[in-house]
Write a structure and sequence with these properties.
mainly alpha; Methane Monooxygenase Hydroxylase, Chain G, domain 1; 3 domains; 76% helix; 0% strand; Fusaric acid resistance protein; transmembrane transporter activity; membrane; PHBA_efflux_AaeB/fusaric-R; transmembrane helix
Length: 713
């Protein structure tokens, strides 16, 4: 039976008003959002009560930790809690070392602190998910503890232990309340993973179907498939925590996501094959039409095991038809036109065979078929390391900390340590974000809202009474609202900052309350530090779209040349992942996808991705014993030319066409069926590369304009 609330008449009647009007997240929240906000508020108040009972010096850090650790799923919360503990321990240890190494030596201490913050920020850029958070937490935990101990260096160990106590208390409270409120997490995680996989498989299958039908989707839709696959691949590690011992579910899910990108990429290759060979026989046309029909049935079959088994059987039958058709095209022919038509059919059918193999592997992984051999990394989808961004982020953070320290030293500001601390927090925390200015600005405005919300409990409630229940009532309402806003995508970034800083700005203590002057000084130092961080991101090594486009082009073309180099091999997963990551950064700074230049860059990225993947496919033919020695020599010459950075797109296109003509001649004169099939498979890869090189591509035009973030479609 469904829950009463899901079928209550009032919810049905209110739906047109609650989903369309702005602010619906507040007055008509989703039950999941309300549940998250309620349990996190309870956990925060519980942590605060325990901190008061333990006579901790700064009890507000315990509820702050609860809100920082709390995430939408238990896997995310557990992962963040784990890495928060790791980062905290590393941070307090490094703070003790810094204070011990440079006591009462500010201009040895500050450069050392800035170097450490810069190093942690750079390392955080090179890893992902909450491992990155652990590095940045190490940086600003070190800053918090070390700067608090500058005037009382002999108390640094006590301060470090206190900091660790707050963090552990907050983590434990959040974990306990989460376990009580969210039972049966493993089953929900399996269901969520399955639903997400169905959605992305459906999206990719419809895109490939439209490509085969001659109606290729917009470049922005294709980017959405790859970007979503990369995002889900990152989030799979949280599902792995939730499902516990059933690790095979996660392994198959990772493989499925990797195969989604390969299937979509293979569909883009088929687009080029069909453009190069528009006329094909009824046999090839029937295979394409039947594949289109099966892809159309796939979304409904994903939720039905029997229907999915029938689809897989039909896919296997189509694959056999492709193999039979390929063999049929090698029959002896005398007419030149018939020979050319048969070769074209064979190239199309071989492309369809490759595509059907990708789809079959994909469906086998989705169905958890034990016959699908899963070797580590076979279908991985990694994010390549971005050393350029790591260097920039580390340098920017180090300069920001050193500049903030100089301001403190010059002005002798009483709250200078707090100012430098929050500069460290914002510069380390958001350095690895795609749009640092937008993220840090939202963080600043969230703190402004927290300051305004803290006025009532600080200036009205706390002077009147010290009763804990009254305090809870006055702060629970803002906390609950902040939790609701955290689960609303349009307000999530600002709300996260609000929830973090609201407990901090209460200035709680066991034996005293914060006075007005102290509150204003603390709030001003906090907002000044966060605002200074926003200015740093805007003016110190800021993101420049023109420079990014040039770097994206240079890195992509450099990786393309690496495909031809034997010692430094480029792998398929790294090739695809690097281009997807570049497209993500482009979209993050555009804010939309509709203008002509953005579409041109996305089109160029997909075109280069297709070229690279087919060159990787051709690379293996250099050692294929089925093709003649002179064909292998021609392919080796092609890759040797590709390996040189001086080989431009025009020269590469000429080399590809020349190699195609020579292999085509060998295929026509060969009397061995296996040799002809292998040569035509290589011809299929060459024809895709030649087709894509012949199309306009901004990656091959150094003077091509970059998208303008201010433009609108």
């Amino acid at each position: 039976m469904r829950p009463f609330l899901s079928r209550a008449p009032w919810r049905f009647l209110a739906r047109p008003f609650t989903t369309a009007l702005p602010g619906a997240w507040l007055y008509a929240p989703r039950l999941t959002a309300a549940g998250f906000s309620l349990r996190t508020t309870i956990a925060a108040l519980l942590a605060l009560a325990i901190a008061f009972g333990m006579e901790l010096g700064e009890p507000q850090w315990a509820p702050m930790t609860v809100w920082i650790v709390a995430q939408g799923t238990r896997g995310e919360s557990i992962s963040k809690a784990h890495w928060r503990i790791v980062g905290t321990l590393a941070g307090i240890a490094s703070a003790i070392v810094l204070i011990a190494a440079f006591p009462q030596s500010p201009w040895l201490f500050f450069p050392a602190l800035s170097l450490w913050v810069g190093l942690c920020t750079a390392l955080g850029t090179l890893v992902h998910n909450f491992r990155s958070y652990a590095f940045v937490l190490t940086a600003y935990t070190c800053a918090i503890v070390a700067l608090s101990a500058t005037a009382i260096a002999d108390q640094v160990f006590t301060l470090a232990m206190a900091r660790g106590s707050y963090i552990l208390l907050g983590v434990i409270c959040e974990m306990v309340v989460g376990m009580v409120c969210l039972p049966n997490v493993a089953a929900q995680a399996r269901e969520a993973v399955t639903t997400q996989l169905r959605q992305i498989i459906t999206q990719a299958a419809m895109a490939v179907r439209d490509i085969l039908a001659g109606r290729p989707p917009p470049e922005g839709d294709l980017h959405g498939i790859f970007s979503r696959a990369l995002l889900l691949n990152d989030r799979i590690e949280f599902s792995a925590i939730e499902v516990g011992r059933e690790k095979h579910v996660v392994a198959f899910a990772r493989a499925t996501l990797g195969l989604v990108t390969r299937m979509t990429s293979r569909g883009l290759g088929m687009r080029s094959r069909l453009l190069a060979i528009p006329d094909h026989s009824a046999l090839a046309g029937a295979v394409i039409d039947d594949t289109i029909a099966l892809l159309g049935l796939l979304p409904d079959a994903l939720g039905d095991a029997r229907a999915l088994a029938r689809i897989r059987t039909d896919m296997a039958h189509l694959t056999r038809r492709c193999a039979d058709g390929i063999a049929w095209t090698t029959r002896p022919l005398t007419d030149n036109a018939a020979i050319e038509a048969a070769t074209g059919d064979r190239i199309v059918l071989q492309g369809m065979e490759l595509l059907l193999h990708e789809i079959s592997h994909l469906l086998a992984c989705f169905a958890d078929d034990p016959r699908e051999a899963l070797t580590p990394g076979r279908f991985s989808l990694p994010r390549p390391d971005n050393w350029h961004a790591a260097w920039h982020n580390g340098l920017r953070s180090g300069v920001a900390v050193l500049t903030a320290a100089l301001i403190w030293e010059t002005t002798a500001w009483a709250q200078g340590a707090l100012f430098v601390t929050f500069v460290c927090v914002v510069c380390a925390r958001f350095a690895s974000f795609s749009n640092t200015v937008l993220a840090s600005a939202a963080f600043f405005y969230g703190a402004v809202w927290a300051a305004m919300a803290a006025v009532v409990p600080v200036f009205v409630v706390m002077p009147l009474t010290s009763a804990y229940p009254v305090l809870c009532f006055s702060i629970a309402i803002p906390m609950f609202i902040g939790g609701l806003a955290t689960r609303n995508p349009s307000t999530a970034a600002m709300a996260a900052s609000f929830s973090n800083f609201f407990p901090y700005l209460l200035g709680l203590d066991n034996h005293s309350r914060i006075d007005e002057l102290q509150w204003f000084n603390t709030t001003f130092a906090l907002l000044s530090g966060l605002g200074f961080g926003v200015l740093v991101f805007r003016y110190v090594l800021p993101f420049n779209l023109r420079r990014f486009c040039a770097l994206f082009r240079a890195r992509t073309l450099g990786n393309l040349h690496r495909i031809g180099r034997t010692p430094a091999r480029m792998e398929e997963d790294v090739w695809i992942g690097g281009i997807i990551q570049g497209m993500e950064n482009l979209i993050a700074h555009m804010g939309h996808r509709g203008d002509r230049l953005t579409d041109a860059w996305l089109h160029g990225a997909f075109s280069v991705m297709t070229i690279g993947r087919n060159l990787l496919y051709l690379r293996d033919f250099r050692g294929d014993p089925r093709i003649p020695d002179n064909a292998r020599d021609d392919l080796s010459a092609l890759f040797d030319a590709l390996s040189h950075a001086a080989t431009g797109p025009a020269a590469l296109a000429r080399q590809v066409r020349a190699t195609f003509e020579r292999l085509h001649g060998m295929e026509r004169t060969s009397g061995d069926t296996g040799t002809r099939i292998a040569l035509s498979a290589a011809l299929g890869g060459l024809i895709i590369v030649a087709t894509e090189l012949g199309r306009g591509n901004v990656f091959f035009s150094p003077g091509a304009a970059c998208p303008d973030p201010r433009a609108r479609a």
